[in-house]
């Protein structure tokens, strides 16, 4: 009797142990399909392109200045949203800001890091990375705004996605499109522009009538008063020669940017809009310039870019083309005084218009390029590439 009880007890204990072991195993092993997906992915990647899934997946690692969606319409976008909402020509991609969208971080084809902000503190970096996935260095700010110690991040990134034209994925503030063909023309290293018509052979009745009401010279809207480019000194020097009205924190005038009257004033009151960048960096051309181009006002640009790669010829005045502020002011006075000359700066509006595209279209297309699947690329010293694109001062004599 006692023997039988002992046996039963042993059996019960054994069952309990096995049951416990089973629960432990279930709790501690990844989901079955997760292993399956991972194996399929890795095997597929080794065998070749054909075995890889048709869509590429992109994870947004962190927010874009607090915007978890990076200004996209949804948290997760599939091929349909890439095609319909973003208008991407290559749209077989999925993108999400939810880290658990795929069962393992190694499964994403690309992970996008916003470098103008530190890595999120409470989010440890992926412990393992697949040799097939791309870590993307993404930002729209100049090098001075980088919030990462890039010397500690060597061999981390595979792709760059910035406003620089030599990035893997170019992410400009806007594009210039040919209105008749719809083709994007700029920014590009060697854009094919139409040539502006001969002076006087072309007229714009709207600008012609506005020219008569424009009684002031230049307007400048600015909120950062001390900048690396020292644009504030250029503006101050210009004020000694011509009227420059400074709106915002750094000036004496006020006009809320969202007040429509403020933008209308650029059409009706001012001859020139100062589009001075805060940093003199290669290809760094921001939305202020593009905003001005939507109005009937001639932009005066100052920055580190070669503007012929961004804008049609004879659509702007580049301060860097002048040796001194005095010569720049002289030229502005000449353009403002001559009606035909002033109107000639708007010739391009008949042929071109501005548009913005999501950079994720190009990222999606890159991930689909057959060359990409066979190439491995990583940046060993991204800092020297990134920081070398800036100068501290301009040659213009103030
Ligand atoms: C600016 O870009 C144009 C177009 O690519 C090029 O022809 C020109 O030489 C460049 N200018 C400078 C100063 O680099
Ligand atoms: C341009 O058009 C305006 C308004 O239609 C007209 O007053 C002006 O004389 C024209 N200028 C030239 C050069 O044709
Ligand atoms: C990305 O860079 C890492 C680290 O250098 C490398 O191991 C990996 O193969 C690269 N991936 C691609 C797709 O180039």
UniProtKB/TrEMBL annotation:
Protein name, entry field: Fucosyltransferase
Gene3D superfamilies in UniProt: Glycosyl transferase family 10, C-terminal domain
Domain Fucosyltransferase N-terminal: 55-173
Keyword Transmembrane attached: yes
UniProt record similarity statement: Belongs to the glycosyltransferase 10 family.
Short name of one Pfam family: Glyco_tran_10_N
Gene behind the chain: Dmoj\GI14950
Lineage: Eukaryota, Metazoa, Ecdysozoa, Arthropoda, Hexapoda
InterPro entries named in the record: Glyco_tran_10_C, Glyco_tran_10_N, Glyco_trans_10, GT10-like_C_sf
Signal peptide bounds: none
């Amino acid at each position: 009797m006692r023997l039988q009880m002992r046996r039963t007890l042993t059996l019960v204990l054994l069952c309990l142990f096995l049951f416990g072991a089973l629960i432990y195993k279930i709790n501690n092993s990844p989901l079955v399909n997760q292993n399956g997906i991972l194996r399929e992915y890795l095997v597929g990647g080794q065998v070749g392109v054909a075995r890889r899934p048709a869509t590429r997946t992109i994870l947004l690692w962190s927010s874009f200045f607090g915007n978890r969606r990076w200004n996209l319409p949804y948290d997760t976008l599939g091929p349909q949203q890439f095609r319909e909402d973003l208008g991407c020509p290559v749209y077989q991609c999925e993108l999400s800001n939810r880290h658990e969208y795929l069962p393992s971080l190694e499964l994403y084809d690309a992970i996008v890091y916003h470098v103008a902000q530190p890595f999120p503190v409470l989010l440890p970096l992926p412990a393992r990375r697949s040799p097939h996935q791309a870590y993307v260095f993404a930002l729209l700010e100049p090098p001075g705004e980088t919030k990462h110690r890039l010397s500690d991040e060597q061999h981390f990134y595979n792709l760059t996605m910035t406003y620089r034209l030599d990035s893997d994925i170019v992410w400009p503030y806007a594009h210039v499109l040919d209105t008749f063909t719809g083709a994007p023309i700029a920014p590009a290293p060697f854009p094919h522009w139409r040539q502006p018509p001969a002076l006087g052979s072309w007229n714009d009745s709207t600008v012609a009538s506005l020219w008569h009401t424009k009684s002031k010279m230049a307007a400048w809207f600015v909120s950062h008063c001390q900048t690396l480019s020292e644009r504030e000194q250029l503006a101050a020097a210009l004020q000694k020669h011509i009227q420059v009205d400074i709106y915002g924190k750094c000036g004496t005038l006020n006009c809320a940017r969202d007040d429509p009257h403020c933008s209308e004033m650029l059409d009706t009151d001012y001859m020139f809009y100062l589009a001075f960048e805060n940093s003199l960096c290669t290809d760094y051309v921001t939305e202020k310039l593009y905003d001005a181009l939507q109005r009937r006002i001639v932009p005066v640009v100052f920055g580190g870019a070669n503007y012929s790669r961004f804008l049609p010829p004879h659509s702007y005045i580049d301060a860097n083309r002048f040796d001194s502020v005095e010569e720049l002011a002289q030229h502005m006075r000449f353009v403002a005084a001559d009606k035909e000359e002033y109107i000639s700066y708007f010739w391009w509006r008949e042929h071109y218009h501005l548009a913005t595209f999501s950079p994720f279209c190009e990222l999606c297309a890159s991930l689909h390029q057959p060359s990409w699947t066979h190439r491995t690329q990583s940046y060993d010293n991204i800092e020297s590439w990134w920081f070398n694109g800036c100068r501290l001062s301009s040659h213009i004599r103030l």
